[in-house]
Amino acid sequence: MVGEDKMRISWITEDSGSPATVKYGTSPGSYPFSANGETTKYRYILYKSGEIHNVVIGPLKPNTVYYYICGPFTSPEFNFKTPPAGFPIKFAVVGDLGQTDWTTSTLDHISKSNYDVMLLPGDLSYADTMQSLWDSFGRLVEPLSSHRPWMVTQGNHEVEKIPILHSQSFTSYNARWLMPFEQSGSTSNLYYSFEVSGLHIIMLGSYTDFGPGSAQYNWLKNDLNKIDRKKTPWLIVIVHAPWYNSNTAHQGEYESYGMKSSMEDLLFKARVDIVFAGHVHAYERFTRVYKDKANNCGPIYITIGDGGNREGLASKYQDPKPDISIFREASFGHGELDVVNATHAQWSWHRNDDDEAVVADTIWITNPSCTL
Predict the structure, then answer these.
(1) So which residues are the catalytic ones?
(2) How far is CA 116 from CA 88, 108, 182, 260, 305, in A?
(3) Which residues form the Purple acid phosphatase N-terminal domain (predicted)?
């Protein structure tokens, strides 16, 4: 999604000279509208990417199905539905996807959920410098990512920095997954915000500078100050490395405790409703928390890094379970956030058991009655 009524279509071709053009319309086989974009490519050591095309189309009507084809127009016809103008709206949420059989199962379950927007808190392809795996990941997710908007942020597996050989971080991620950062006043594709159907959603970067005085910190502070809670009563934040985590995996990492120390006060003062994270390959839901204690005015923290990665599940939890941790389970799955209206939303976590989407955890969430 780009702004209130536009969508960015991204695709890759092997052949050079293919036009960065999308033709689209509201009826199958009929494309009265057309838009042009730009084509880029990148190198990663010996790897040369295909032609990466990015085209922004619109203005688009809300809650409408559009049919489109991409240059050179020998492509199949795709279609997507724009999000609704207001409530209700449904989000699919999943982190640490990878490219395993579990990933395929997770994507299959998500495809049946009739979601409006996908939120992905980092660790997409698990290419880990093997650039061909970015291409195979694109083919794997294409049936879903061509059908609904995917809004993502980066994780540690997107860094792909190798001393001497490739000194730049996030080369592949930034080239392939271009997010609308400029529209929110950000100067980096690694952190941005957007608004959709009554929600303000902030995507933070766990693996770029986040300390007080950093560009990301200053941007976040300014972005929070601009929010109109009458227009967007719900405020959601996405990170990769969780700030709250009772799993034994990924304890003591600076990306978690350093970012929490720097930014938790900002999120609390802004009355953020939910903070989603990935990184830990398991599911965990906390109560509303601030400064490690239950607080009715703090955000609900949810770890959803169980999409299906090749590293397996993080199956060991700290014992005893902290009082602020409400539900935790080491299973692959995905989450769904149904925002019903300005005050009520339902969150559910669906684990992948026996190839069936089992609803294992569900709660109703209400906006806290705390003074802003």
Answers:
(1) 250
(2) 10, 16, 23, 30, 20
(3) 4-82
